[in-house]
Design goal:
Layout lengths: L2 E3 L4 H11 L4 E4 L5 E5 L8 E5 L7 E8 L11 E5 L10 E5 L5 E7 L31 E10 L4 E9 L4 E8 L6 E3 L4 E2 L6 E10 L5 E10 L3 H10 L9 E3 L5
Antiparallel strand pairs: 1-9, 2-15, 3-6, 4-5, 5-8, 6-7, 7-15, 8-14, 9-12, 9-15, 10-11, 10-14, 11-13, 11-16
Length: about 250
């Protein structure tokens, strides 16, 4: 299966590094080991929370589900794996679907406790305590360090951010063969106050069987207009054509 890897984006990221190399807010760099697997045998856990002081809010919740049409006979499964138990130099979040299987991975940052792995309504929308992700108006975008991506895959990416004042905003994107790593705050639809963030969650849903992908970092960065112009000229990242981005209004 064809893959996108960091080799295709070295020039683009090196060029972007100059305008965004300031100290950034780290959401997660996935160095703590955590694995959840949705497996028809019912043995492997499909949800867990891990405590990690390097993760925003001190904890990461992960849950996966497998499409009911998955290959039950061959124990088809979907896996979310943070870090690597064998090669610790690869600090990544990997999303992997077995042959012929589609699935969904959900990652939640809402402090310790809160989300119970079943009910989305259990997410502690104030669990992060009102973090100012803008750093006083200086930062304006999430950065996703994509390291691996099936070029022939189709992925639905959804993200929601809550604030401590009862507001929230959503973003959804159909990712095909592009890997624009930047998601600006103004691309969200809703009324969240990014200066008082209480919880963050994002979901990865494979619409094509056997999709695999990985990221090694989620952070918040300042993105000047020059960087956006550069990405546009590159066609997203590494010369790959732009994906279809669409905003989804808050329910």
């Amino acid at each position: 299966m064809k893959k996108f890897s960091t080799a295709l984006s070295v020039i683009a990221l090196a060029t972007l590094a100059a305008p965004v190399a300031q100290a950034k807010t780290i959401i997660d760099h996935f160095t703590s080991f955590q694995k959840v697997t949705a497996d028809p045998d019912g043995v492997s856990p499909s949800y867990s929370e891990i405590l990690d002081g390097s993760v925003i809010g001190g904890a990461r919740d992960m849950r996966v589900t497998t499409d009911p049409s998955g290959d039950i006979i061959n124990q088809g499964k979907t896996t979310l794996l943070s870090s690597d138990s064998v090669n610790t130099s690869r600090s990544e979040l990997t999303f992997s679907n077995a042959s012929g299987v589609t699935g969904t991975g959900l990652i939640v940052y809402d402090g310790v406790g809160g989300y119970d792995g079943v009910d989305i309504g259990s997410i502690a929308t104030g669990g992060l305590g009102g973090i100012d992700l803008t750093k006083g108006g200086k930062d304006n975008a999430f950065f996703f360090g994509v390291t691996d991506f099936d070029l022939n895959g189709v992925l639905e990416f959804e993200m929601r951010v809550w604030d401590t004042e009862g507001g929230f905003s959503d973003y959804t994107e159909t990712v095909t063969i592009t890997l624009n790593p930047l998601l600006k705050f103004n691309e969200f639809s809703g009324d969240v106050n990014f200066e008082k963030v209480g919880a963050i969650a994002f979901a990865l849903r494979s619409n094509q069987a056997s999709f695999d992908g990985a990221i090694d970092l989620i952070s918040v960065v300042p993105v000047p207009a020059s960087a956006l112009l550069l990405l546009g000229a590159l066609g997203g990242l590494g010369g790959i054509s732009a994906s279809k981005r669409r905003r989804r209004k808050a329910a």
